[in-house]
Amino acid sequence: MSAQVSSVSPSLVTNVVTLLRQRQKALIKRGKANPAMSMLALTAILYFWLGRMRSKKGPPRGKAIPHLKSKLFMIDVAYAYVKARADGDELKWVQGLSKQGLTLTTEVIGHCLILAFEPSSVQHILVKNFENYPKGPAFHKAFFPFMGTGIFNADGAAWKNQRALARPHFQVTEYKGAAHIETQIDQVFGILDKSIAAGEVIDAQDLWSRYTIDTATGFLFGDCINALDVPQSKFVSAFNYTQKVCGWKIRLCDYQSL
């Protein structure tokens, strides 16, 4: 969940950037600065300054939540996350953060973020009080090219209306006796058997995600997208890639157009 705060004046940002660039050029001209390192330092300073300015203009906060410990203005945390994604080991990254506490707060480009790892907190947000945690304009903007105004990218009355239309199709009784589900269960067991026989590590989350999307599309549209097939189809590969791009856009907050 992110708290939106008032923006910093564009003219003020422009003036600060201009002054920093002038200082950078002067140091490079005198041979006292490396261009690459200067640019990195400029980015870090601007990032920190924007965060501080936006925080001061934000609304008053309630009870303090433990702050996520980091170095170099969150660069170490961001690097660890990028590496974890590249290695396919995001769970290890999350476990590392959760050692600091099950509820943490941090700031990313001037936006206050609350990280919730406590299962009861996640249940409260996603199940018990979902309406009180809207996705917000940044999420809508990032996912609109992919999901439009569908239920996964809607808030408020629009979300309630679409949920009411979709809910009857996801009752347990609707799935009983669905023949295609048995076929996909057999595929899952086949994948598990092959992985066990080969001594391979099984990515259970990925496997069940693919099973879920196959059963859902098969039931709703009469034909699944074959996400369980190996190798993956072009559609599934494109679907996964699009999700990743949207994920990166939402992490960039106001700067996703970059």
Automatic annotation (TrEMBL):
Taxonomic superkingdom: Eukaryota
Keyword field contains Nuclease: no
InterPro entries per record: Cyt_P450 (IPR001128), Cyt_P450_E_CYP52_fungi (IPR047146), Cyt_P450_sf (IPR036396)
Pfam family, one: p450
Molecular function via GO: heme binding; iron ion binding; monooxygenase activity; oxidoreductase activity, acting on paired donors, with incorporation or reduction of molecular oxygen
Listed transmembrane segments: 33-51
SUPFAM superfamilies named in the record: Cytochrome P450
Signal peptide residues on this chain, from the entry's feature table: none
Alphabetically ordered keywords of this record: Heme, Iron, Membrane, Metal-binding, Monooxygenase, Oxidoreductase, Transmembrane, Transmembrane helix
Cofactor(s) in the UniProt record: heme
Family as reported in the entry's similarity comment: Belongs to the cytochrome P450 family.
Name recorded for this polypeptide: Cytochrome P450
Organism annotation: Linnemannia exigua
